[in-house]
């Protein structure tokens, strides 16, 4: 389909008259933030994640059907130690294949948990993971081809913390006291208050966006913190939503880590933008004892024309609060682009401050040298690979692709040599925002939209926003065979499921 014809069809669809259908519930904020239970993963057997069905009341009195790892929704926080082998078993108690992908972790392909490693109902996968990764906040989730979006949405996800005994972490690190995980997600609910995932045309095009924001599985919770420095490990675990985090009183905070681990120095800021699957660690000073809220500017879908005709889910063209074309439908939304989303609130308790009283001027960041690239590869993220509108309406799941080809499990797209530094250039064939993830390594971002960036300020990444030409410098030190290759893909989960993914070996 030609781009101008696609724009005409999309514009005509958006021009549908609005209706006003009210919902029968209201989400009450202020419930205590749940702190995930920690599962310490070491070399001894006995650590098991059971993928199970459950029910969870996100809205009081409206139980939703959910999935989780060893609990009704999401999973425990997995804690690994660098230099140790981590033995863990994942048992599938569901009725369809799943995986457990250790997002961001540097492991060989046969341990990565990608689509090739899916295992069926009643089966158990028991990898032995050699932990060779700097101290960092990572992510685990199911990664089945064509089913990643709904499986993660239902709850098959959780946070990982890697500790490095060789470094002296100078930051707050008393888990659950001054060091907190924040798994941020948006979810959609039907008129009865039950979580739903029904994709309309625009959900497939831009990625699903829900109408409520959850942190650790609770809508707009409250956290009581000590009156001092507090570390927040933030994971954007939404299917597609981009957050622009800030505090409602405009206070300054410090980013101290990104996807791959610590930065070189704490960076003072008043806002933090995270795309899907990105992580950041920040340190906030609550010594003034003032209550405060974490909020986000609603960036919109990040679609064509950078927030123009199709970059905003709000406005008068919304059919109802559930969306056009079905229960979620074509334009399910959570506020208009430019509005403010409430994420969670903080108050300060009577507990005496613990941990460091001030931040260091430098941080013990992992700093391997990549050197100059020996080759360059180009990747174009394609919104359609033939029959685009047919794919959007659900009759052809493989509507998207990379370099003109949708993902095929038995095709190897690239072959990379271990230990060689490469420059990858990623772009899109339409003016769309994407989020590009590479398995098996961390990389440095060299440029975005034609402008050079300071890699030290961004840190080590495994996810990067693509909104114009983007260059990354990377090297692979872990092997991946043809049977269990690494993946590169858009981390808008609906794009990934629709075929915007490729795979490569490392030899």
From TrEMBL:
Do you know which Pfam families this protein is assigned to?
Cu-oxidase_2, Cu-oxidase_3
What are the entry keywords?
Metal-binding, Oxidoreductase, Signal
Stated name of the protein: Blue copper oxidase CueO
Source organism per entry reads Palleronia abyssalis
Q: Does the keyword Signal apply?
A: yes
UniProt-recorded Gene Ontology molecular function terms? copper ion binding; oxidoreductase activity
Q: Which SUPFAM superfamilies match?
A: Cupredoxins
Looking at the record's lineage, which domain of life comes first?
A: Bacteria
Residue ranges annotated for the Plastocyanin-like domain, each copy included: 57-166, 387-506
Question: Has keyword Signal?
Answer: yes
Designated gene of the protein: cueO_2
